[in-house]
Amino acid sequence: MHIKPIILLLSCLTLPCIASSGKVLAPGVFYFHEQVQKPFPLSIHLLQVDPQQAEILLEPSHGVCCGAETPSSIAERTNAIAVINGGYFTFGQSSKLKDLFIKILDCCGYDNYDAYPEWMMKVQDHWFSISDTDTPLLAWTRDGKDVAITTGKNEAFLMVESLNLPIADLNKPYANGPILYSPNYGQNTPKDDGVEEFIFRNGVLVDNNVGGGTHIHHDAIIYAIKESDAKHYDLDSLELGMQASVIGTVYTSDPIAAKDWHFVRGTKPLLIRDGQIPEKIMTATSSFYTKRHPRTAVGILNDNSWLFIVVDGRNQHSDGLTLPELASLMLQLGCIQAVNLGGGGDSTMVIEGAVVNVPSGRQYSLVQKERPLSDAFVIMPYSSPTQ
């Protein structure tokens, strides 16, 4: 572990000293950049946000699941004060070979791909993505009064009168098991010759289709299942005109009721829990934890303000941080809760319309440039007419 060198940096990097040399972007929004050379080159970007004075929103790429957009494009589209990259995403390919092909193209600077949020994502009361495994998550109310960094998972069913149909995933192409598509996915469901779809509008079964590519109306949900899996469910009993509703539950240890969260984003790992760094952060041996990479994280301070951090890496001006170093830095800066966000080539911070860090691209990438992502955190003034 590289904890000893980072301690030297931590001794001089604290919020009081930052406040004397940073920039106020708007009421309750403060930006600071620090470039150090010793004990190793490091470029750190910090953004502190008071949720009582500025809104912290989660913005999907182009407003839907099926797409990808750079943080600077999101900043321009929303006229945001600041934008920070969100959680992890997948390319949504039907095989590992196709996924690898997209990653290779990504390394060469190709960015015409779709990015789908991994794990949970809820935006303005609408679920874009779910997770059936217990995953760290960040959840908050729009008024900024409540925020939680905890763990949780989803369970969802489509109730068609007396028939209880499981939902394995939401708004994902080529998932294993039954998938539910909502208008948040995009215009059309993905084409797949082996898939049967059941189309519901205003909660009523109106049609079924084979092969995908179905238009998703604003009042529709579409239950899609591989024809080879359909035999495991009593789908032959479905008839046009049947009434349906979606039943969803979020299981979490946090006292805030899931229905009261306006925004939820699953990500990993937890960096600080109740003022302590989890043991796994300090003892894990995989290179994801122990090697220095560009990093993005968000923490909650004692006064309930948020602290975003973007650390550059993979260039001569900044080595990046290990996860133990990142957690230690967040703790020293006063975070009582913190979680890691998408890092590596995802790490991006946009301030007043300009990218202030140096996005690295994918590891081993031939091109260093800003990467299109599935979602981003958007900082807006409460008085914004677009909200």
Could you describe the 3D structure shown?
Helix 1 packs parallel to helix 8. The chain contains eight helices and 26 strands. The strands form five sheets. The protein has a seven-stranded antiparallel beta sheet, with helices on one face. Strands 8, 9, 10, 11, 12, 18 and 19 form a seven-stranded antiparallel beta sheet that branches. It has two domains: 3-119 and 267-381, no CATH class; 155-249, no CATH class. The protein has helices at 3-10, 15-19, 71-78, 96-107, 227-230, 279-283, 287-290, 323-332; strands at residues 23-26, 29-36, 42-49, 54-60, 82-85, 89-90, 116-117, 121-123, 126-129, 135-140, 147-160, 163-166, 169-170, 179-181, 191-201, 204-212, 220-226, 244-252, 263-266, 270-272, 295-301, 306-311, 335-340, 349-351, 354-355, 375-381. A hairpin with a 2-residue loop joins strand 1 and strand 2. It has 387 residues and is mainly beta. The N and C termini lie far apart (44 Å). 14% of the residues lie in helices and 37% in strands.
Can you tell me the overall shape?
A: globular
Q: Give the rounded overall mean pLDDT.
A: 89
Counting DSSP E segments of at least 2 residues, the number of strands comes to 26
Straight-line distance between termini: 44 Å
| Unreliable segments of 5+ consecutive residues | none
Number of domains: 2
Q: How does the major sheet shape up? A: 7 strands, antiparallel
Structural class: mainly beta
Q: Roughly how many Å is the radius of gyration? A: 22 Å
What share of residues is helical? Answer: 10-25%
Strand order of the largest sheet: 1-2-3-22-21-23-20
Percent of residues in β-strands: 35-45%
